[in-house]
Design goal:
Blueprint lengths: L1 E4 L5 H10 L10 H10 L4 E6 L2 E10 L4 E8 L8 H15 L5 E2 L7 H9 L18
Parallel strand pairs: 4-5
Antiparallel strand pairs: 1-2, 2-3, 3-4
The chain binds coenzyme A.
Length: about 140
C-alpha cells in the first residue's frame, strides 16, 4: 500500500470507502470541507492506495494544542493486515514533528471493534463526556 496526501477529486472514492466501512457521511465530508481540512493540515489528511484505488483513510488536524483524528477507515477486504495502524502511525510521526503532544479522537459508544483497534495502538479511554453545538445548518 502507498500512502499519499488527500487530493481534490478523492471525495467520491473516500465517501464510498466510508460508507462501506459503516461511517455515516455527515457535514464536513463534502469536497469543499475535505479540501479545507487538507489545506489547513498539509500531510495530515492521508489516503492509502493499492494499484491507485483508495483502500484506507485517516484525516487529522492540529490546532496548535491538540491533534484530532477523523475517519480512520480500512476497506473491509483489507482489514487485519496492519493497514490502519500504518496510517495512524504515519500521522502520529508527523504530528510529533509539528510539536503536537496529544492526539484525540471520538469513538461511537457501540463501536467495540474500533475500541479494540485503538487500544491495540496504545490509545487510552478518557473519563470524559463529549459536548457539541451546531453553529449552522450543516
Ligand atoms: C477500525 C479499523 C480502522 C481497523 O482497521 P485495520 O486496518 O483492520 O486495523 P489493523 O490491521 O491495523 O489492526 C491492528 C490491531 O488492532 C486490533 N483490531 C483491529 N480490528 C479489530 C477488530 N475488528 N476486533 C478486534 N481487534 C481489532 C487488533 O489487535 C489488530 O492487530 P491483529 O490483527 O494483529 O490482531 C477498521 O476495522 C475499520 O475501518 N472499521 C470501520 C470504521 C471505523 O470504525 N473507524 C474507526 C472510527 S473511531
Amino acid at each position: 500500500m502507498e500512502i499519499r496526501d488527500l487530493r481534490a477529486g478523492d471525495g467520491d472514492a473516500l465517501r464510498a470507502l466510508w460508507q462501506a466501512a459503516g461511517i455515516r457521511i455527515r457535514p464536513g465530508d463534502d469536497d469543499a470541507s475535505l479540501g479545507a481540512l487538507a489545506a489547513r493540515n498539509p500531510g495530515l489528511c492521508i489516503v492509502g492506495t493499492e494499484d491507485g484505488r483508495i483502500v484506507a483513510s485517516a484525516l487529522a488536524g492540529f490546532d496548535g494544542r491538540r491533534g484530532w483524528l477523523y475517519h480512520v477507515a480500512t476497506d473491509p477486504e483489507m482489514r487485519r493486515r496492519g493497514v490502519a495502524t500504518r496510517m495512524v502511525q504515519t500521522i502520529e510521526e508527523r504530528l510529533r514533528t509539528l510539536g503536537c503532544r496529544k492526539l484525540n479522537l471520538i469513538v461511537w459508544d457501540d463501536n467495540t471493534e474500533a475500541m479494540r483497534f485503538w487500544e491495540a495502538n496504545g490509545y487510552e479511554r478518557d473519563p470524559t463526556i463529549e459536548y457539541s453545538k451546531r453553529l449552522g445548518e450543516t
